[in-house]
Target: Delta(8)-fatty-acid desaturase
Amino acid sequence: MSNVDLGARSDRGSAYAELSRLVRGAGFLDRQPGRYAARVTVLLGCLVLMGVVFVRLGSSWWQTATAVGVAVLLAQLAFLGHDAGHRQIFRSRRANDVLGMVCANLMTGISYGWWVDKHNRHHAHPNTEGRDPDIVVAPLSFTPGQVATQRGLRALFVRHQAALFFPLLMLEGLHLHAAGVRAVVSRGGLRHRPAEAGLLVLHFAGYLAAVFLVLSVPQAIVFILVNQALFGLYLGSSFAPNHKGMPILSEADDLDYLRRQVLTSRNVRGGRILDVLLGGLNYQIEHHLFPSMPRPNLRHAQPLIRQFCADYGIAYHETTLIQSWSQGLAHLRVIGTGATRRDND
Model:
């Protein structure tokens, strides 16, 4: 485990219970249907506007700019699906699942059920080696143990993984699509497999039909490449600040829930524009402590939670967006030097 001050341990369990009472008493766990209704309305309006622009432009290389706008909208829809997956929007699980599948499967081409399962495992064991799927991301290596297993071209990649990280994120959208398709065609336990499969088919059929019916073949190919690359880059760049470069725990590390979530997470400072751009993920500490807290409440809960951590001597890490990326890349660079040293031995 990375060197980190674990803080006082005598309050095990009781501190989080106290924090939960404070947060609930302040109303920060209350749902915000009006705010989410406004958010959905804005996104739908932007989608309609983007569709009109796409059709009016027709077969034009200016559609490359449209591809950028569509990438941003797809990422924003993915953020909304993330909120639904955490039951932030509706009281009903079914209502959240329906909205989540519409945002994920139909609109962005990602399996909602697959993603929720993976993401819940991450939340239960953030940055824990052997438990968190988000630090088992080939071809990247996040721990010395992962580096030790790399050979040949993979070891060569790891040596340069910090420089290749952001270019690699351009493939993240394609990876999410492929993982979603594998999930619905495999024999795993998706709760709504028929619905998810049908919505994915509608997404890919509608996406490809719209692109190839309106654009020439070369324009369509460029549109897809630009759109998917920027979609992956946007999503990956939004998730990367959350935990990359923060302490990585082993299964033997005996931390209570409060410290496990706070010490492995990083907040990103910024105003309301950044809140929108990052889908609320910049309040990662608050989100990990209370995953069902509606996104609009995270900003308001932050001062209380930050002060609570200070009172209990728990390190609360907060930085700028650029610094968060820099810290994540620094970690990848340090880990990558292990591959270089091993090859030189």
In short: The two ends are 25 Å apart (CA to CA). The chain has one domain: 14-339. The mean pLDDT is 93. The chain is about 65% helix and 0% strand.
